[in-house]
Every structure is written in structure tokens, then in C-alpha cells.
Amino acid sequence: MSRIGKRPVELPSGVTASLSGQTVEVKGPKGTRTFTATDDVTIKIDDSVVTVEPRGKSKRARQQWGMSRTMVANMVQGVTDGFKKELEINGVGYRAQMQGNTLKLNLGYSHDVDFEAPEGVTITAPKQTEIVVEGADQQLVGQVAANIREWRAPEPYKGKGIKYKDEYIFRKEGKKK
């Protein structure tokens, strides 16, 4: 039994949800998000509560039950609070700055890296060594942060590169003489 799927999703004030077929649309102060569930689950909206139930006892129905409930809960969190990923830049001369909608990165290459912020994501650089990615879509925020990190992933000897704020870099010992 899915312990996640059993719990209903509460809609806070200022958030509305509508259902058309298997598509749930959630509107809130930070935007609108939609999710189309598979035919293995039944979604119901009563007052300010969204519930998800499986259709049958098949393995796929039980898998989709918890996943669909989590997707709806993430949409509600996204339109109320939003999602945020923080990145840190370590390394001599490595820095980031915003110019309009473009993130300019100096990462030790012979050229600057220009990263365009996609629609629905806000990128800020409060310091030269910090990048903050925010948005209502959890998957998109995580993907944008991963794409930025990919330009110079942290290396294990000195830890130079772009890392998540809460990420631990396992350090290796250098060569011995």
C-alpha cells in the first residue's frame, strides 16, 4: 500500500485546482501548472482537498498512485512558495554575473559562457560566487541548475568548479614525491 498516495493534498488559500479528464490544473500566486495523470488513478477535488486513488490493484496502478499524488503536491508547492536551487562557484577567477536574462560565467575557459535563462525560471547572482535558480516547476529548476553545474563540475583535488550549496565534494590526496 502506498503511504504517500493515501494522504490528501491540501490547497492553501489563494490556490485553486481544476480537473478536466485526467488533467489537473493548479493556479496560484506564482503561476499555473498542469499535470496529466495516467488512466491507472482517479483524481478527485473536494472543496480545498485533492485526493488520488488507484483504479484496481495492479502494480502499475499502485506505482502511479503515489507518483501522481506527489506530482500534485509539488505543483501546489510550486505555485505557492516555488522551488529554489543554490549553487556556489569555487576557484580563482571563477565568477558569475547576470546581464538581463543571460548568466555570464567566467570559468577558466578561453571564452565566457553565456547561459540563457529559460521561460519560467529566474536566475540571480547575489554575489560573484553564488547563483540562485528559482521557479514554480521543480523539474525545470533542477534541470537548469544541473545544466549550469555541468559547465564546470567540481573536481576532487582542490574542489574547483560549480557545486550545489549543500553538496559535499569528496577530496582526494594529490601526488606524493
Automatic annotation (TrEMBL):
Keywords tagged on the record: Ribonucleoprotein, Ribosomal protein, RNA-binding, rRNA-binding
GO cellular component: ribosome
Domain Large ribosomal subunit protein uL6 alpha-beta: 12-82, 91-164
Entry keyword RNA-binding: yes
Cross-referenced InterPro entries: Ribosomal_uL6-like (IPR000702), Ribosomal_uL6_a/b-dom (IPR020040), Ribosomal_uL6_bac-type (IPR019906), Ribosomal_uL6_CS (IPR002358)
Pfam families reported for this sequence: Ribosomal_L6
Family designation: Belongs to the universal ribosomal protein uL6 family.
NCBIfam families: L6_bact
Reported function: This protein binds to the 23S rRNA, and is important in its secondary structure. It is located near the subunit interface in the base of the L7/L12 stalk, and near the tRNA binding site of the peptidyltransferase center.
Self-association and partners: Part of the 50S ribosomal subunit.
Protein name, entry field: Large ribosomal subunit protein uL6
